[in-house]
Amino acid sequence: MPTKSKDSWKIPKVAVAVDLAVLTVRDDELQILLIERAISPFRGQLALPGGFIASEREDIDAAAVRELAEETGLDANTLHLEQMRTYGTPERDPRGRVVTVCYLAVVPDLPLPTAGGDARAAHWEPVRTVLDDSTSVAFDHGSIIADAVDRARGKLEYTTLGAAFCASPFTISELRHVYETVWGQRLDPRNFHRKVTGVEGFLVATGERTTRDGGRPAALFRRGDARLMHPPILRAAKQ
Amino acid sequence: MPTKSKDSWKIPKVAVAVDLAVLTVRDDELQILLIERAISPFRGQLALPGGFIASEREDIDAAAVRELAEETGLDANTLHLEQMRTYGTPERDPRGRVVTVCYLAVVPDLPLPTAGGDARAAHWEPVRTVLDDSTSVAFDHGSIIADAVDRARGKLEYTTLGAAFCASPFTISELRHVYETVWGQRLDPRNFHRKVTGVEGFLVATGERTTRDGGRPAALFRRGDARLMHPPILRAAKQ
DNA sequence: GAAATAGTGTCTCTTAGACAATATGCG
DNA sequence: CGCATATTGTCTAAGAGACACTATTTC
Question: Which parts of the protein come within 7 Å of strand C, by CB position?
Answer without folding.
Answer: A 188, 190-191, 195, 209, 211-217, 231, 234, 236; B 171-173, 189-191, 193-194, 197, 209, 212, 214-219
